[in-house]
UniProtKB/TrEMBL annotation:
Keywords: Signal, Transport
Protein family membership: Belongs to the bacterial solute-binding protein 3 family.
Keyword Transport carried by entry: yes
Record's protein name: Polar amino acid transport system substrate-binding protein
Residue span(s) of domain Solute-binding protein family 3/N-terminal: 35-262
Record InterPro entries: Bact_solute-bind_prot3 (IPR051455), Solute-binding_3/MltF_N (IPR001638)
Residues spanning the signal sequence: 1-23
Length: 277
């Protein structure tokens, strides 16, 4: 028992020392290599996707570019971006493992994720849960999906809770594109997803013209920019950048650019931070 306690204590101290050693190092590494490593998504139009010419684009790609610009101003030299593609199922682990300096990947800010990664404040966007299905599918209320087969993406935080709440038969797929394709193929009656993705899909009338958002949004939650714990300087830089996005109306402009419906969250945050430094 004493030996076990000593081993556990040593492991805890080692972890603490490792975390402390990270403090203040991320900014130095970015400066040294002249590059920001960003975990970002390519399966979530218009926040992150590949354009027909192969370019990686989207609202969150614009935000990462803005971070690089601010770092360049800080270091007085150009800072490029290395993009590491993530999906819902691996984005948190990639941050934990240090595969990127920062994550901007349509990630909901919640208590479980805060236990393992540093989600900086303020949050930058928000979304809630809904169902997208064919217009002909008889879904009018949330109770109408009870016991039904719905497609979902692996790693979505709402899967377990909604399965319990509505006794759902969830068909989980590796990513957003796969879940969407399964819905179109008729392998489920609807896709349980967030309203931001659902609304953006419907912009593509050629592919999604027979579909619609079926249910009022529930459980609206904010999205956060994340990094590893242990570097207060870099976390502070990220926090200042997100604050500036709200203060300067950056997110309002990007919603317009990417043809997203203006959200109450972004408007409220712009008002809240318009006088912030």
């Amino acid at each position: 028992m004493i030996r076990l306690f000593a081993s556990a204590s040593l492991a805890a101290l080692t972890l603490l020392a490792s975390t402390s050693a990270m403090a203040g190092k991320v900014m130095d590494k970015i400066n040294e290599r002249g590059q920001l490593a960003a975990c970002i998504k390519l399966d979530y139009r218009p926040f992150g996707y590949r354009a027909p010419n192969g370019d990686q684009v989207g609202l969150e790609h614009d935000l990462v570019a803005d971070l690089a610009k601010r770092l360049g101003q800080k270091f007085n030299k150009p800072i490029t971006v290395e993009k590491i593609s993530v999906i819902a199922a691996n984005r948190v682990q990639f941050v934990q493992q240090g595969k990127c300096d920062v994550l901007i990947g349509t990630m909901t800010d919640n208590a479980e994720r805060r236990k393992v990664i540093n989600i900086v404040q303020p949050n930058y966007y928000s979304s809630g849960i809904t169902v997208i299905a064919r217009k002909s599918t008889p879904i009018k209320t949330w109770d109408d999906i009870r016991g039904k087969k719905l497609c979902v993406s692996q790693g979505a935080f709402w899967n377990k809770e909604y399965q319990r709440r509505y006794d759902l038969d969830l068909q989980a797929f590796a990513g957003i594109a796969e879940a969407g394709q399964a819905l179109q193929d008729g392998r489920c009656i609807g896709n349980l997803t967030d309203d931001a993705l659902a609304a953006s899909r419907l912009l593509d009338t050629a592919t999604w013209g027979d579909f619609e958002i079926k249910l009022p949004v529930q459980d609206r939650e904010p999205w956060g920019v994340a990094t590893q714990y242990g570097d207060d300087e870099f976390a502070g830089f990220l926090s200042s950048a997100v604050t500036a996005w709200h203060r300067e109306g950056t997110l309002i402009a990007l919603e317009k650019k990417w043809e997203l419906q203006p959200t109450a969250f972004v408007k409220e945050m712009q008002e809240k931070y318009k006088n912030a430094k």
